Amino acid sequence: MRKDSELFLRRVLKYRREINKDSFIISYRFFEEIPSIETAIFDILKDLIANDCLTSKSGVLD
Question: What is the mean pLDDT of the chain?
Answer without folding.
Answer: 92
